[in-house]
Amino acid sequence: MNENANANSTRQPSTSTTAARTVLVTGGTGKTGRRVAERLTALGHTARIGSRTAPVPFDWDDDTTWDAALDGVGAAYLAYYPDLAFPGAVETVGAFARHAAKAGVDHLVLLSGRGEEAAQAAEAAVAAAGTGWTVVRCSWFAQNFSESFFLEAVLAGELALPTGTAVEPFVDADDIADVAVAALTEDGHDGEIYELTGPRLLSFADAAAELSAATGREIRFTAITVEECRAMLAALGLPGDFADLFTMILDGRNASLADGVRRALGREPRDFADFARDAAASGVWKV
Q1: Which pLDDT belongs to residue 9?
Q2: Which residues 6+ apart lie within 8 Å of 278 measured at CB?
Q3: DSSP-derived pairing of the beta strands 73-78 and 107-113
Q4: N or C: which end of the chain has fewer CB within 10 A?
């Protein structure tokens, strides 16, 4: 999929908002979905949580749940689990986007992954579905260190990953949610691809140093093999394929900054040090 022609513009956020409506938030209990739902509710919209355990169940892998989840919905936030790079994801997301168009949904906002070819194929499938659309294409989440993936490692004082010296512009999940909600509730975001990063490049050793400074205790980075990472993920009950994803998207392809937060919101993205300070203050890393 080609980047939007305005990808380097310095647009200001729109002040024109849509009327209150029901928005389906898939992955509504996850890192970004939870934040999107909270913001939508605060703005007076109804956030319908899309999950298997929700009052109106939603399951990406069970299309018999899609009609009820989409009933009365005006827009939807699409956060596919486990990742758009996984086999079958593109086909599933494309089928759901077309289903949403037939159900009368007028705008879809897709959470996408930076540097993932399969994710860009999913972007194209959503763009072709027949609704308005916005892509929120993200680098690694800073909150991976405080929620889910790396939380236990931070608590244990060691980040063991197959990332070597690769650098990544970690993006804050609050920035992602702010951009997604703007796209769901404001005019002026249709057809935009917002590539979101933080304001600086950090290696995982750099991230460990920032976490050490925020927590006041040593958090080490240790380089491991993909095979060792796969075994570690399995012990945590996570798909081993994430190990391959780590190495694929940390091969240097994402070692650059992007201006998506500024284009969508008219402000700079949050820095990793700010995330680490706030997370430490919340007590999530207390041992």
Answers
A1: 43
A2: none
A3: parallel
A4: C
pLDDT of residue 22: 98
What is the residue type of 283? Answer: G
pLDDT recorded at residue 4: 40
- Cis ω for the linkage preceding 169 (within 30 of 0): no
Which among 248, 237, 26 is positioned nearest to 118, based on CA atoms? 248
Q: Residues 216-239: pLDDT tens digits?
A: 999 999 998 888 888 888 887 877
Residue ranges in the chain whose pLDDT is less than 50? 1-11, 15
Please give the Cα distance from 109 to 225 (Å, whole number): 35
Collapsing DSSP states into helix, strand and coil, what is residue 135? Answer: strand
| Cβ atoms of 178 and 266 closer than 8 Å | no
Q: Residue 146's pLDDT is what?
A: 98
Up-side HSE of residue 287: CA atoms within 13 Å toward CB?
A: 12
Of the candidates 255, 260, 128, 258, the residue with the CA atom closest to the CA atom of residue 193:
260
pLDDT number for residue 16: 62
The alpha carbon torsion through 253, 257, 263, 268 (nearest 10 deg) reads 150
Q: Would you state the pLDDT for residue 8?
A: 41
How far from 104 is each of 69, 94, 276, CA to CA, in Å?
13, 16, 41
One DSSP character per residue, 181-197 reads HHHHHBSS-TT-EEEE-
pLDDT at 13: 52
Rounded CA-CA distance 135/260 in Å is 10
Identify the pLDDT of residue 229. 87
d(CA 246, CA 25): 26
171: nearest Cα among 258, 45, 78: 258
Q: How far apart (Å, rounded) are the C-alpha atoms in residues 244 and 225?
A: 11
